């Protein structure tokens, strides 16, 4: 089933089966360069993916003055751009701006390193033999950082690569087993590691200021010892480069720049490079009074901004604010672009400030656009808060249709810190239950069923689902009356897995229901858009284009092709949610702008798409609050709620009039959902 009126409008990076261009510019270039210079094609792709996610950034330089998909660099300490020009005879300008030339130049540089290392033809045919050449390509001054760079590339070879490049071209590397021949690097430990006998790399194992971070000191030229002002703000940056490359750049004495921390995209790994007590060179006039956090990636490519990165960075920012007495608000947690006396644009339009600030203040509110909360089974949605502290209590305040009653403990240990709690009716008794995704090595899924007055014992309903940085969601995707669990891998592959509820004691084995939907940087959701009783996939691309795509459920084993259903809704910085606001059994979409105006816009579903966005409320859920949706007065139309998540912990509701607005906004609870808790 397709959405009428929207066929043929699929974006360049939509699921398989669309009609977009299948040009093979990069694939042809990687294959040709590999053949010409005797470099394994997959190795070339892995190097490029690690450097830029195969994005040429329209010929614009990185922070280290690197160009193109292969990040050929021209700076005082590292000149692979000029080296590539000499080796290939190509003009520097062409190497900067033409992806074919850039890939060819990188292959030539890698081959030169291989020749210097004495690799023969037989050795060059094996990716394992190229380890030292790859380490040299990264250009790090420190051996431990060079190893980090090479290990990252070989990690991509192990895991495989699936990337939608410019114009929709799909570039892949199949996963393989690797046994890299590290040579001299075998005796070099990556940053922040140690051997069993107490040996360690030339940098410290852990940061003194933030325990989970590695300590890798920047070059003394790139920061100033001590401070001339009190620390009163945190500044968010984007590296315009790779994780290992940025660490290497800050170790380069000619860089003249640094940051206190660097966060990796893939898993949220953190490296500290300047002590909190010292002044990093990252924000000009704000340097003496600020702490800088760099995030791996590029401003114009949202695929770098993974959920793992957001959560790790938010935990770091929360720690720094608590440690240094910095208020956790947007007046004190700023983007580089928001500071006076600077010309930078990072973190840019794709950085999701509202989600980030919710994570900073709540300790990990889920990225979810809707999750039902009728725990008593009376047809009216209630509110729930998960304390997510060592006690891990769960409180519910039931709706009276005109307010929320007193908060009561419904479970005394569920969803401790680090887990992702959600809600849904998993056994079909019309009472919503609670579910938590542990997200650890085991990635277990626990459910506690509602009895109408509390939640029963937690039981494992799935033993491996939504690991790592995946984004879980809940919905009835096959229309059988039992809510199921869904996970968006939220990475370059952008797979969507579903585990159907058996209605009594567990979820069935997970299967792929879509092979490309909601990649990193987008905001995924579930909702019954066409009103057929099966929940469908929705994704908000956010950013500057702010498109909305839907893939309809077939009710059995998959979702259809993603179709463009709205061309501008919930751009970066706004919070999208899904609910039935006019009571027609078809889910609509709502955006909370959360800016100075704090407007609320709704686009109603007509069963085949969404109409134009209309203003439904002129001031609701300002910045720093957590907005949500539910039918709190029991009239069959979803309303809006906001949790202030501050010391007052107020809860406000505005009810839907079913046609064109949310009205009667007022306080429904005066203390619920304190800072650090997760509310739904």
UniProtKB/TrEMBL annotation:
Its EC number is 3.5.1.28. Residues 219-348 form the N-acetylmuramoyl-L-alanine amidase domain. Coiled coil: none annotated. One of its GO terms (biological process) is peptidoglycan catabolic process. Residues 1-22 are annotated as: Disordered. It holds the Pfam family FG-GAP_3. Keywords: Cell wall biogenesis/degradation, Hydrolase, Signal. It is an enzyme of class 3 (hydrolase). InterPro entries: Amidase/PGRP_sf (IPR036505), Amidase_domain (IPR002502), FG-GAP (IPR013517), Integrin_alpha_N (IPR028994), Lysozyme-like_dom_sf (IPR023346), NAMLAA_amidase_2 (IPR051206). It catalyses: Hydrolyzes the link between N-acetylmuramoyl residues and L-amino acid residues in certain cell-wall glycopeptides. GO terms for molecular function: N-acetylmuramoyl-L-alanine amidase activity. This is N-acetylmuramoyl-L-alanine amidase. It comes from Streptomyces calvus.
């Amino acid at each position: 089933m397709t959405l009428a009126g929207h066929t043929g409008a699929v974006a360049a990076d939509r699921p398989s089966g669309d009609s977009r261009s299948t040009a093979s510019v990069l694939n042809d270039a990687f294959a040709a360069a590999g053949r010409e210079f005797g470099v394994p094609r997959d190795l070339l792709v892995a190097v490029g993916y690690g450097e830029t996610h195969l994005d040429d950034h329209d010929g614009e330089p990185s922070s280290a003055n690197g160009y193109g998909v292969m990040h050929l660099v021209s700076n005082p300490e590292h000149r692979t751009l000029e080296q590539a020009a000499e080796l290939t005879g190509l003009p520097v300008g062409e190497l900067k701006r033409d992806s074919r030339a850039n890939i060819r130049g990188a292959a030539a540089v890698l081959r030169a390193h291989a020749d210097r290392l004495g690799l023969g033809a037989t050795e060059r045919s094996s990716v394992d033999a190229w380890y030292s050449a790859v380490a040299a390509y990264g250009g790090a001054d420190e051996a431990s950082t060079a190893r980090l760079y090479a290990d990252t590339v070989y990690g991509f070879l192990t895991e495989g690569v699936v990337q939608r490049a410019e114009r929709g071209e799909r570039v892949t590397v199949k996963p393989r087993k690797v046994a890299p021949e590290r040579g001299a690097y075998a005796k070099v430990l990556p940053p922040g590691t140690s051997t069993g006998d107490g040996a360690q790399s030339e940098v410290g194992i852990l940061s003194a200021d933030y325990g989970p971070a590695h300590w890798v000191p920047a070059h003394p030229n790139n920061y100033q010892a001590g401070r001339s002002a009190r620390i009163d703000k945190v500044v968010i940056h984007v590296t315009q480069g790779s994780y290992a490359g940025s660490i290497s750049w800050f170790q380069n004495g000619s860089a003249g720049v640094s940051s206190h921390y660097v966060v990796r995209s893939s898993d949220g790994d953190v490296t500290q490079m300047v002590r909190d007590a010292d002044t990093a060179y990252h924000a000009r006039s704000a340097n003496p009074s600020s702490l800088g956090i760099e995030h791996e990636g590029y401003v114009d490519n949202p695929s770098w901004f993974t959920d793992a990165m957001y959560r790790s960075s938010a935990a770091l920012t929360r720690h720094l604010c608590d440690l240094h007495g910095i208020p956790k608000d947007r007046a004190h947690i700023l983007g580089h672009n928001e500071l006076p006396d600077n010309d930078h644009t990072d973190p840019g339009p794709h950085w999701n400030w509202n989600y980030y600030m919710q994570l900073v203040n709540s300790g990990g509110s889920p990225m979810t656009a809707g999750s039902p909360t009728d725990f008593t089974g009376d047809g009216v949605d209630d509110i729930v808060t998960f304390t997510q502290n060592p006690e891990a209590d769960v409180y519910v305040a039931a709706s009276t249709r005109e307010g929320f009653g007193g908060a009561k403990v419904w479970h005394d240990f569920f969803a401790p810190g680090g887990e992702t709690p959600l809600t849904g009716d998993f056994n079909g008794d019309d009472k919503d239950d609670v579910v938590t995704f542990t997200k650890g090595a085991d990635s277990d899924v626990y459910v506690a069923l509602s009895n109408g007055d509390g939640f029963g014992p937690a039981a494992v309903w799935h033993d491996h689902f939504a690991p790592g940085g995946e984004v879980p969601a809940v919905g009835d995707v096959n229309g059988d009356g039992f809510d199921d669990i869904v996970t968006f891998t939220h990475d370059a592959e952008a797979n969507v897995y579903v585990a159907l509820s058996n209605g009594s004691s567990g979820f069935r084995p997970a299967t792929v229901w879509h092979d490309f939907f909601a990649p990193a940087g987008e905001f995924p959701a579930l909702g019954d858009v066409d009103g057929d009783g099966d929940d469908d996939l929705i994704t908000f691309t956010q950013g500057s284009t702010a498109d909305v795509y839907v893939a309809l459920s077939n009710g059995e084993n998959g979702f259809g092709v993603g179709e463009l259903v709205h061309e501008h809704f919930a751009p970066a910085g706004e919070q999208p949610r899904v609910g039935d606001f006019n009571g027609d059994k078809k889910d609509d979409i709502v955006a909370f702008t959360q800016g100075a105006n704090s407007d609320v816009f709704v686009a109603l579903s007509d069963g085949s798409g969404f109409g134009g966005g209309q203003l439904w409320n002129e001031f609701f859920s300002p910045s720093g609050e957590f907005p949500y949706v539910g039918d709190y007065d029991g009239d069959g139309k979803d309303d809006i709620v906001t949790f202030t998540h501050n010391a007052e912990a107020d809860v406000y509701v505005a009810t839907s009039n079913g046609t064109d607005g949310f009205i009667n906004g007022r306080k429904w609870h005066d203390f619920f959902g304190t800072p650090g808790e997760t509310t739904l």
